[in-house]
Amino acid sequence: xxxxxxxxxxxxxxxxxxxxxxxxxxxxxxxxxxxxxxxxxxxxxxxxxxxxxxxxxxxxxxxxxxxxxxxxxxxxxxxxxxxxxxxxxxxxxxxxxxxxxxxxxxxxxxxxxxxxxxxxxxxxxxxxxxxxxxxxxxxxxxxxxxxxxxxxxxxxxxxxxxxxxxxxxxxxxxxxxxxxxxxxxxxxxxxxxxxxxxxxxxxxxxxxxxxxxxxxxxxxxxxxxxxxxxxxxxxxxxxxxxxxxxxxxxxxxxxxxxxxxxxxxxxxxxxxxxxxxxxxxxxxxxxxxxxxxxxxxxxxxxxxxxxxxxxxxxxxxxxxxxxxxxxxxxxxxxxxxxxxxxxxxxxxxxxxxxxxxxxxxxxxxxxxxxxxxxxxxxxxxxxxxxxxxxxxxxxxxxxxxxxxxxxxxxxxxxxxxxxxxxxxxxxxxxxxxxxxxxxxxxxxxxxxxxxxxxxxxxxxxxxxxxxxxxxxxxxxxxxxxxxxxxxxx
Amino acid sequence: xxxxxxxxxxxxxxxxxxxxxxxxxxxxxxxxxxxxxxxxxxxxxxxxxxxxxxxxxxxxxxxxxxxxxxxxxxxxxxxxxxxxxxxxxxxxxxxxxxxxxxxxxxxxxxxxxxxxxxxxxxxxxxxxxxxxxxxxx
Amino acid sequence: xxxxxxxxxxxxxxxxxxxxxxxxxxxxxxxxxxxxxxxxxxxxxxxxxxxxxxxxxxxxxxxxxxxxxxxxxxxxxxxxxxxxxxxxxxxxxxxxxxxxxxxxxxxxxxxxxxxxxxxxxxxxxxxxxxxxxxxxxxxxxxxxxxxxxxxxxxxxxxxxxxxxxxxxxxxxxxxxxxxxxxxxxxxxxxxxxxxxxxxxxxxxxxxxxxxxxxxxxxxxxxxxxxxxxxxxxxxxxxxxxxxxxxxxxxxxxxxxxxxxxxxxxxxxxxxxxxxxxxxxxxxxxxxxxxxxxxxxxxxxxxxxxxxxxxxxxxxxxxxxxxxxxxxxxxxxxxxxxxxxxxxxxxxxxxxxxxxxxxxxxxxxxxxxxxxxxxxxxxxxxxxxxxxxxxxxxxxxxxxxxxxxxxxxxxxxxxxxxxxxxxxxxxxxxxxxxxxxxxxxxxxxxxxxxxxxxxxxxxxxxx
Lengths: 489, 137, 462
Prior knowledge:
Distance between the termini of chain B: 11 Å
Largest interface: A-C, 189 and 196 residues
Strand content of chain A: 5-15%
Helix content of chain A: 25-40%
Strand order of the largest sheet of chain B: 1-2-3-9-8-5
Order of helices and strands of chain B: EEEHEEEEEHEH
Oligomer: heterotrimer
């Protein structure tokens, strides 16, 4: 297993007055242009003073303290940590794309890629229009709910302010509803993990704006009654919003538009393999059916004859507006485009197939090893949940302990404690780009950890042992806030 | 299930606040307010507490204070209406007082009530104990 | 098959373990009538083929000489910045939820937060937001949460603030009862006069937004404006350019010390100038900083330094409970992800340049824009619009519509600037130009001589 770098001082601790990466400084420009004294900075900002080599070494060493897809199997459920193809980066960083100012004449080469990306996303989701501007899943969600609200208001249906959300939903859903001036009504799921149809029938009313769903659900199972759910909500006058976080499970197999959804947000940084970057940037493209087309966030790429251009306020006067300073995370969208062209028609269909194959295989192997699946009678979608509630009762071991111990075995932990409904859970998503041997190695590690639960539980509760740091004191971090370096007094 | 400490001389709300009336429950008396043992246990180690400033007007059922742990941040709702006459300054540097002694040193703020206390919104210790048992199911 | 490693033997063994005959059986829970038909997308391309396509398309977009600013600025990006930021350990890592396995990213973000505090003169920074425009929207929501003295949810937005930022603020924050009020600018000076704020003396207003330099590139009188805001118990939101902060007074120092406090209350802006390429509009990143007393109202992730169980220093995401609390508060934010890779690039950029290098970039940009404005103003039919001092952008007035002039320049490989006719029709034929340290003297000569040619009498209707 790869050895991690262990310690690296802060860059400020490496600094020495007078040092700098001189070749990076632009030449001095002669002239008399000046800032008036009263608007000038009194003292220079306290930024690092290091040589170029020191900076390169420092950040290279920091990178070596990270787990990443390029170095470790990373089965984080709901995050779709598949291989990020290098080609996507190489071609997105061609100098002509990189050097292009967003407010110049429309770049036809770049816009051709964006237009085709819109078309492909429409096709695979069964939607009629796509906007690439939301910069992350949460922004895509916001756009979706805002469009739904705009639709009802445009029809003078002002009472529709309630969003129905299943109990297992992601935490951003209620926040997004509030941001759009809506309230949230939660409904439970049944014992199989599907939406409780009776609860849904009782929940819809003339106040229903929409239901927010993901399919497969956050519990990793396919809502096979989705057509009935759609009928109930549409008949009540509401719309269906699809949270596309789990699109990897159904790519090419089912289209959200065909399931009855009116709007979908996609996480291009999940399904379409744009880089996770240590926490972004993402891209939360939204797709809509005919009803919501007029409300798409701008700008959207349009075509006049053979010429591409941005469609703006004039073209979409009912748009919910702009969500970003320019046109969203353009470079991320370009990487998604390259990825989709590399997959092509057949490759896209294979994504869900092998994601499901890997997930079901891993689930079966873990079950055989004695672990409890949360929904053992259901097929895994592209991910599945293991619950450690029995192990917790028997050995006082928690999901957190297992997650930390997995790090010692060279695997990034699965997602823990989400969804909240399942106690002591691990949400495991291998993705389609992992080889069988890596899944087997993961399983072997889990078997070894199981043995440790029985024989040496303290090894788990004090894990990790081989990382650059041991378990960190979260309480201290929040109580004694140290959020920025300060020079010693 | 861990049996929660619920002093019998206090009154309780559904949102897990407790109220201690001053000597004699006069309508314009001062009451002391905090959060229960159950609440502090559910939150975990508190890292931050925000109490209302002296002189602030509060309304029954309105969010008046905040308690924050690593796991969760929760609003604390004033069970009564009135004016804040005192707040526990020690909580700024020692939020853990609420974990250690939620009914004593962990008191949060005192309110001089300006309206009759709504008895229907406050539970006795026994009723609160039943309420916790129901919630646990 | 792209990126799928399974051999037929692998597949057979795996199906056997699962207990199904085919992969298709894994989808048997999906009702047949919902199953998609053949996807109408093009067949797969090899890496070589997509490389060819992309190279051709890039070539058709070309590399014009760029003089546009307006919120996105062309600066030299040192070679190490992206060589390191695209290392797989940074590029393909996730959000640092498992802190022990992400100390690299977490320490980097801590260093970034420290540098933003240093630049802005503020006490605490978050780990970034999506971009400058959405950062302003978030700052407005934050001011509503934090300003106890105000209950009106009114925010004063000068017209000299980037108009797209204003649009985005309205789109994002408009559904929560926030009222944005317009404050006009002085047509001669090109900045926001104190007189425009007088109608709001003593009124219930939550915040005043000031952009420095403003959208026109002009320098606002930030001390007087900040003092006015604080005297009226109004929070001051500063929208700033990070390069300019090498030369300009930090927002933490704006105004006088009143009641033991000084400076802007919330600082935000677009971080793109710090090592992030123009890239047709994104990804960029927004930065935000504030006073320690408001840290719990600040959205976004924050990294803190703490100790591990053996007393060693380490880094982790902290104050996460407040994110969920902000999601239920009276002014809600739903932000989850940030712009991690761009922050990585910016931190490396700031480390390479340091204060001395950043000052050289800022000073060169200041001088080049002054030279550009002077050179272009020597062309007949062109004159400067405003009198206020500037940073690295200037507004010029032309004697004819700007759009045809820009088209003619573009045909000759020059992106001359931004036509302001849609954003500020009252200015007439106004053009916003920018020259950074990337523009050499020869580039300025090229622009001015081409402009002279384009605007010469012999080319009446360009």
